[in-house]
Fold these 4 entries.
Entry 1:
Amino acid sequence: MTERQLQIIHAALQLFAEDGVDATPTSKIAKTAGVSEGLIFRHFGSKDGLLKAILEYGGERVAAFYAKIANESQPKDILRQIIELPFSIDESEYDFWRLIYTLKWQRRTHLENITEQMLSLSSKAFNDLGYEAPELEAELLLIVLDGVATRALLTESYDMKTQVKNRLLKQYKLD
Amino acid sequence: MTERQLQIIHAALQLFAEDGVDATPTSKIAKTAGVSEGLIFRHFGSKDGLLKAILEYGGERVAAFYAKIANESQPKDILRQIIELPFSIDESEYDFWRLIYTLKWQRRTHLENITEQMLSLSSKAFNDLGYEAPELEAELLLIVLDGVATRALLTESYDMKTQVKNRLLKQYKLD
DNA sequence: CATAAAAGTGAGTAATCACTCACAAATGTA
DNA sequence: TACATTTGTGAGTGATTACTCACTTTTATG
């Protein structure tokens, strides 16, 4: 990934997240990135190719996060890490996640598998901890975390973060 | 609202929810609705005017729901009704809600006030029930319900609905 | 240095977009 | 019936879109 390609990816990511993919013309991406419009197509082939490159670029980081959690051996540690997830998103990653969440509603993202993996991971953890309905608990936990992430991504200066996190850790007896 | 206007609104709503507003050309709306493209502009002025009409049309039904809940006097009944909310959405309303949730990410919806109202309503209910941190509980409840709605709207034949609902009613001691 | 490959440009293109408008048909209203 | 208003049409318009291509500049390699 060259310097110029990253310039384009960052500009596109920002605009895609702000206005949506369809409402963002490639001319505007080029202008924001400070390159000619033709260069976008030389490097990424098409607008859709650029979108895919963005998703892959971000997907790698997501996979790394997952691997780290899956490495934990204690079920309590796994749950703690999973709960921490939406609270530990760096602000520099907000645009990426905003894009992911937007695409979810047009059914063209390729990150459902991560949700699936998180689901089975926490389901197993709940089971190990002796929960009666581990799958239901896992389902509910991920729903909550999805909601928290949504709230954090859409609310500027979301200051209830810490309280919400502590309340969740308390609910699952992880504090 | 005439017959023809409703035809247009329904066609547009379906396409907006499926593909997104920006990816839906007015020509396709006209074709789906079985009317000429010009008629859309005669009735709604612009594509954005059509979108606003759709949101108003749906907003009335949402307001009615809210009024019904606000009418309850017992805090437990209020919470029960609020929890019921995402589970009682009729499938014929799915497109509307998919559109609302999509627009949320482009920050051009006008339904945040409803969330605000729900927040203060359940906050008051939690307070009446003697919860230690009623605002935090309200915040978390709405986050969960938002997540449930998201899951239900995006998952075809979402069969964990009843279990999730019962688990929530149990958690808040409403069963 | 020479030369080939890669990176970068910007004017151009066909297609598509939201929207207009002159007109026709349908629906009042007396 | 006569006439005005509303409803509906579809061809047309200028603007914008994603994308191409002939060309220039930069970089890599011997």
Entry 2:
Amino acid sequence: MGDVRRSNTALVLGAVAKAPAGVHPSRAQLATATGLTKRPVSSLVLDLLDAGLLREAGQSQQGRGRPGVGLELNPARGVLGMEINVDYIAAGLVDLSGNLLVHEVREQDNRSAGTGPVLAALAGLAGTVRAAAGEHGVEVLGGGLAVPGLVDPAAARILTAPNLGWANVTLEPGAVLPGAPLGVSLFNEANAAALAEVRHRPKEGSDFLFVSGEVGVGGGLVIGSELFTGPEGHAGEVGHVVVEPDGTGCSCGGTGCLETVAGQDAILAAAGIAADTRTRSASMALLVQALQAGEPAALAAVNRAGRYLGVALASTMRVVNIGSVVLGGHFAVLDPWLRAPLLASLGRYAPGRFSPEQVTLSVVGESGALLGAAGSVVRSLIDAPHLLQS
Amino acid sequence: MGDVRRSNTALVLGAVAKAPAGVHPSRAQLATATGLTKRPVSSLVLDLLDAGLLREAGQSQQGRGRPGVGLELNPARGVLGMEINVDYIAAGLVDLSGNLLVHEVREQDNRSAGTGPVLAALAGLAGTVRAAAGEHGVEVLGGGLAVPGLVDPAAARILTAPNLGWANVTLEPGAVLPGAPLGVSLFNEANAAALAEVRHRPKEGSDFLFVSGEVGVGGGLVIGSELFTGPEGHAGEVGHVVVEPDGTGCSCGGTGCLETVAGQDAILAAAGIAADTRTRSASMALLVQALQAGEPAALAAVNRAGRYLGVALASTMRVVNIGSVVLGGHFAVLDPWLRAPLLASLGRYAPGRFSPEQVTLSVVGESGALLGAAGSVVRSLIDAPHLLQS
DNA sequence: TGCATATAGTTTAGGCAATGAACTAATTGC
DNA sequence: GCAATTAGTTCATTGCCTAAACTATATGCA
């Protein structure tokens, strides 16, 4: 297939994907939407039907004239979203429209287990979800896996995941999803979650910085609805912006990084709450209780985190010219106490650049990484449908 | 002309532009370079010759066989690079290969004069250079104008140039270069200078942050040899990264920005050297003398600037994932004294991420902004030659 | 009920711009 | 001086588009 037809195929498929949920555009509507004429649209739609990416879905019409045949993304095709985190693994089935159909979480300590057993457990969970997909009549085309660390997607390699204690782990082809035509793609967790935010907040501006509070502080930079990854693929690491030159040492080897005052461990320590890997979620619950009870140490810890988060965001804003922030992870949970010091700090360090309504909370929550990883695989398929047509 | 042919035209012209200086590729060589066959290359070359963008230039051959006809960018076409700065205006003629053929600088205080007289003076200087171009047999196709401030290129408007005291100045079409087919495009000075660095350091990596020390501190972010401008076009403003949360107030309204410790005024003040707009370049010379004499106050001021510059670069590096820095403006001048504290600071705040050879000095120097503005206009013409053919 | 109008989708003709192979032109090397 | 080699052109073919005509199927009003 020639380049021209290939890109027009993506154009037509993208136009179907862009239609709001429940709206099934006809071939004629696709022609006007894409700027192509009806002739090639009909022929491209035929290809996409053959490839199983589109499906005819009743009528699309309202007014006079012959009714059109509605077209939709084939609901019988899907992608697995997967996640490996410090204390759980998860897998979910996402259809081509981005709907989460099946979701399985298995809690386990992945820090002490080796990489092999964890990947085997993930493959098992993925197999379970894939079987469930089969019962729904959904064929799984590929998968996206989010991990809390730096990845090299091209090499399917996890470069380093400090909180898992992993480094240079390569994902063998077919190990997780044997036989899936698109294989499994790797993503950084915060980046994937940022992409999920894009998908799930339609009109809400397509330029923002997603900041995710986890054990560390992750970030994803979305510009023009696309992830900005920088030359080596690791942009958006706002957790290591220097916010206090005379601050304490960071796990990255640096000094005074945002993570040293706004990561979970830092906040818990400052609040005087003990935490280790296995009890961290319990500790975070204790922190919220302490905040609700108005305990001064807890309030001061969150206050400090908010203030320094503002410093980091103000700096980031000037470097990449982004005016919106989405808070995720524990930053979303702590928002009631974090928000005031954060906004005050933004007002001090970047006056006139952030209005309060530009600091919003994550809408996808916990499953964001999984949704985003799967959604990104879907998106790349819609942008390049020939990957499947061969 | 169809889209396909249009993009292939750019492909062929780009292949000629990519050839090293003095090498004149033949049609057959262009065919292999572009992946097209000889037939369309011949026909596209014909179009480009007609448009005056290419010229036949003797033979291209070495080995056996029929010699090819060499092709080069037409040296009889050029673009004006222009600059308005605090204490001078400048204009230069740049040919399509990026060579600076004519260069005129006129010193004048643009801060006290109004925008109208300054623009009129610039138009006069541009006219002079254009006349000189005519004597060289070079036709001026358009121009690029660099200013020290934020610009909206689409609207040909200078949004704000604090050091000039300008805000919302619109460049009327034809005011500076009447009749030039491409008109005049606006650029931020540091961004333009960054682009000039790209052009003039061939193999030296195409991802870097250009940091320019001026009255303020400007920056340009180059990723994949392209300027990264962010969603609103103002990315790279590293001068307003917060390096000291408890620092002093900045002209931007913020607190503790890099500019408050590393801008010219800040360094001069810390070194105990008086400065105003008219004597600033003299003051900088005094500073260098003081440094050479080993005066403690001067050394401490530059030391502090270097240390905080390192903080800002370490943070920027994590946000945009850039591992190379090019120092321009007074940072290049002060390099002998600035370098050690800068490297030490980078080692402390971003350990293992910057090696000393990744901190380099500007190769284009003073005329960088002018060269970059003109070069960018040339580049956009080469990427879209139909702008001229129509 | 029936016909004008409107819209969907297919068919046919035509055009642009590519590829591939054959052909002509100009040079080197033995 | 002729074979080998490379440059550039010509011609036939192909891919894929647009434009317009045509067929199919609906609505709305007399």
Entry 3:
Amino acid sequence: MTKINGDANSPPKQVIHSQEAAKDPYVERILDAARQLFIENGLEAVSMHRIAKKAGIGQASLYRRFTDIGEICSVLLRDNSERFLNELEHEVQLTPVKLPAFERLQSSIERVVDFLEQHAELLNLIKTEFTGKKQLTQFEHPFFQRLNMILFQLLQQVTAETENILIDPQFVATALVSVLSPDLYLFQKKVHGRSKEQITKGIITLFVTGLRNP
Amino acid sequence: MTKINGDANSPPKQVIHSQEAAKDPYVERILDAARQLFIENGLEAVSMHRIAKKAGIGQASLYRRFTDIGEICSVLLRDNSERFLNELEHEVQLTPVKLPAFERLQSSIERVVDFLEQHAELLNLIKTEFTGKKQLTQFEHPFFQRLNMILFQLLQQVTAETENILIDPQFVATALVSVLSPDLYLFQKKVHGRSKEQITKGIITLFVTGLRNP
DNA sequence: TTAGTTTACGGACAATTGTCCGCTGTGTCA
DNA sequence: TGACACAGCGGACAATTGTCCGTAAACTAA
């Protein structure tokens, strides 16, 4: 029988650089089970109990690693969202003076809408679960916190570059996050039948063009 | 014993004009029980089971009238929200040309924020429950639908009065509803410590002043 | 090895949501 | 008054979430 780290000269338990949970085999089994159930049954039809069953572990072992389904979704989406936010951050910080801040803001909004288009449903489920348990708003989720921060920096740059501008970057950033929420995005598509492009245009008119002409 | 509609010459079952549930004594008992439990235990600590117990009725009898706690909250808030929306609608439609549309828009936003300040928590709970069950977004709740409609009309008037304006009233109305959502309001107060006045100012800067200067 | 300590597994359990179904009480007709 | 239909009540029940605790495996030390 092979024991984990049981070999002689067991290497020092080095901190894992990659995604932090790479060590725990249960985590992988859980994520695999969840992925599979999501595909087979749709996002809504999957329960924590079923995930535990499918992963072949007990309820408690599941809850010890993920407090709810939203957290599982978070992790399933994390690679994508991390990459996305990193790229966005990178663009904001490393395209410093090449483009006017307004144009960087516009391009960032377009990128966010692209991301929404791909992942709105999963993001929405994350939000539901996240806000459901504690007394939290969707804006307190790490994803939206970081998005808020990035947009805030952009808006600060906009105000720094623009004369006679009267906005509060912090407030506008939060409002922008709200308008970019998956909830609103899905509503626009579902009820008003708007396309990605229409939604992008509407947001840019409000938050870029609107600020631009003081 | 008095039978409901059991008298001779029973009058044709006329549609009830007042709040529709006025007939059913169970509804009153349920609402009383809910009100009391909400006060005693806080919004979050109350379950459907406890409401049924407190009202002295069975689970099914409760569910036959209210599909979830959100619906109970809706009804508890309905008098207030109906009155509020009626007033808002009235002002929008009957203050036609006395004030410029921009100023009516501003005043309406202020009124909505006042309402949020009073009822944000209840509204938020309604939203949670409403969106939780079916695949619905908060914007599909009747309250927000009607608010959306009112703001849409206002924004149409704004565009009619203003030259060179380039907004899509339907889109802006929905964005405005999003920024006026209880979720965002509570977040602003809780995390950023903003006052009602600061929030009002921020929204008006974005959605009134921003549009005003094309 | 053995004894003692610690970790953490997993099933049982409580609490909640929402549904089902047997039963009772009322109304209708003879 | 009695037979019958039937609307509606309420408790039991399934499904889900989240927690607790007895127990077994793993690690430490002699």
Entry 4:
Amino acid sequence: MRQLQCDDVLGAMAEMTDFRLNDFLPYLLNNAAEVTSRTFSASYRKKFGMTRAQWRIMAHLGQGGALTATEICARGHLEKSKVSRAVSGLEEGGLLRRMTSSSDRRAELLSLTESGRKVHAILAAQAQEFQQEMEARLGPERARHLAQLLDELAQAEAD
Amino acid sequence: MRQLQCDDVLGAMAEMTDFRLNDFLPYLLNNAAEVTSRTFSASYRKKFGMTRAQWRIMAHLGQGGALTATEICARGHLEKSKVSRAVSGLEEGGLLRRMTSSSDRRAELLSLTESGRKVHAILAAQAQEFQQEMEARLGPERARHLAQLLDELAQAEAD
DNA sequence: CTGCAACTGTCGCATATGCAACAACCACTT
DNA sequence: AAGTGGTTGTTGCATATGCGACAGTTGCAG
């Protein structure tokens, strides 16, 4: 009797695998990324009215020299239409300059203007402060581990 | 001469802090989350035409009993409007049922229907398979560490 | 040189999203 | 009992997004 009841329960349970949402890595990744980015994006959103995509483009261009839109797409795992529109916005804001490549007239070389570089300096400072808070919270060791793991994931799954 | 040039370069550099985008945790988090979720979401998107938000709600409701929209918001770090619309979609699809709470007529208790449970079983199986792939790629140890770190981040920053 | 496949960035359209405003409702005070 | 502040879920609106179609361009095969 009792045994049968158990069987029924188990039968009903059998439809469920023993899947645990709270251990599911894509879920945890999204939660952590969303919560973190929501907090951080407030710092530049209010200050410069900047999109996340726009922030990323600024960050990439601030790193080094001129980049092409496609290169930014690849590095940042972004859609080309997203980049295209974000770039338009930054150009209107005078933070960014386009120059059609001499070697390939389809491609446009993107680079920061003077004021773009100034804004980037502020953004970088904000970012570094935020990063330090996170590292302090996690501990430097674990923060490095985390960075390593996240990088592997992004690389591995990339097409 | 050479020295002066260097100074000039360093002067220009000085505007840049030594910020390195590739070590910036919010950036890495977003990349990893985006790349991972893009891969995974294909599995249910094409099969059930389901949104990421809808998947999440299914997953939460599949875990246990009935939940209120607000509870789902809190657990999944989602906007209430997002949840509201996702729930409407799931209800139209017959996967989910609403029942106004007897103790609070504002709140609605959400629970899966029979077909909702069946769909959830498939989703859970897909998820588990995906999880195993990820764990195999990272190694079980490191996967657990990662989960732990991500959980901390989501908790810490949460309001 | 011509044709052809692949690539670059833009745009239109349908959908998804965030935010604020909103009505219905609750708990608590006076 | 009526008022007040706070909560729950929905909706309108402006914006952001993904996807596919597109014109302009390149490089290569024939």
